[in-house]
Amino acid sequence: MISVGIIGASGYTGGELLRLLENHREVEVVSATSRQYSGVPVSRVHPHLQDTDLKFEDVAAGEIDADLVFTATPHGASMKIVPQLIERGIRVVDLSGDYRFDDTETYEEWYGIEHESPLDAVYGLPEIHREEIASADLVANPGCFPTGAILACLPLVYEKIADTFIIDSKTGVSGAGVKPTALTHYPHCSDNVIPYNVTGHRHTPEIRQELSRLNPVRLSFTPHLVPMTRGILTTAHTFLLEDLKQDEIADIFRGFYDGEPFVRVVEGIPGLSAVRGSNFCHIGCFEVDDNQRAVIVSAIDNLVKGASGQAIQNMNIMFGFREVEGLDFPGMHP
């Protein structure tokens, strides 16, 4: 049994961490922080969590006593907190973008702020970095878009079958966080599909970095906001370097992900309702046109495999628990 703290527990990802850890047999949540809701019962902010006695507390990072802390904080905020935790021997899974890049120059260029406290971190995509995660003190949890995009492209890059990708992702509104904006205001996003950061989304270099660890790639990425709460459906287009048929590509994906606990290669086109609320990534389609353009589709829940579920998966690996502990349940279809 380990003790866990959650910094930034009142947001969507914090709520998902609390929900998923509720049934984790190896974890006790000892601290859930929120400045705004200090002293307020967790169940008032997260009404689906009625069986917890936790209250939010406004506690400095230096005062948290836990074996591991999840920092569910915005980019720019984590870098002020994480070093204090690491110095005290507390292991950390950071859900912000502050520690995802191999160099601070890339972070500063794409996030537009100076990185105050660079640290060595392991990129927390278990399908690539499982061994490094196991011994890490700091794991940088991947972004939601990169998770779905990397998993959709990875086998083709590994096999050197493709090196150029056009990635199109459709995301639910919860990906923008709990605080409403002009973009996520209901009259604006309802009955609408909205491309944004069309050629300059900050997750682009993150996807490129991880795929290029295997083989160099060129890629372009465009996200779209669609009127749903949860989910990311990613469509990856690539012109194959070899002549392959649909079933041959599917076999490559099945072989690559054989034994992976949370990746399923499915028949047909993945559906978001099949993964909603779960830590699974479904990958399918694999269609090829007469120009040898292959189309791969992945589906994840942006708040689970795209954030909090993957963070718990990383924690399980770090502490030698069953990797599926607290996460071994299917999605909520329909």
Keywords:
six-stranded parallel sheet; 334 residues; Dihydrodipicolinate Reductase, domain 2; 2 domains; seven-stranded mixed sheet; alpha/beta; 10 helices; 28% helix; Rossmann fold
Please state the structural category.
Answer: alpha/beta
Shape: globular
**Poorly predicted segments:** none
Corresponding CATH architecture of the largest domain: 2-Layer Sandwich
Classify the fold: give the CATH topology of the largest domain. Dihydrodipicolinate Reductase, domain 2
Fraction of residues in β-strands: 15-25%
Cα distance spanning the termini: 35 Å
The portion of residues assigned to helices is 25-40%
Structural description of this entry:
- By secondary structure, the protein is α/β, with parallel strands linked by helices.
- It folds into 2 domains: 2-120, Rossmann fold (3-Layer(aba) Sandwich); 144-302, Dihydrodipicolinate Reductase, domain 2 (2-Layer Sandwich).
- 28% of the residues lie in helices and 21% in strands.
- The protein has 10 helices and 13 strands.
- It has helices spanning 12-21, 42-45, 78-87, 104-111, 126-134, 144-158, 186-189, 204-212, 246-256, 304-318; strands at 2-7, 27-33, 68-71, 91-94, 122-123, 138-140, 164-171, 194-195, 218-225, 232-239, 263-265, 281-288, 293-300.
- The longest helix has 15 residues, at 144-158.
- The protein is globular and about 60 Å long.
- It starts with a strand and ends in a 16-residue tail after the last helix.
- The model has no long low-confidence stretch (mean pLDDT 96).
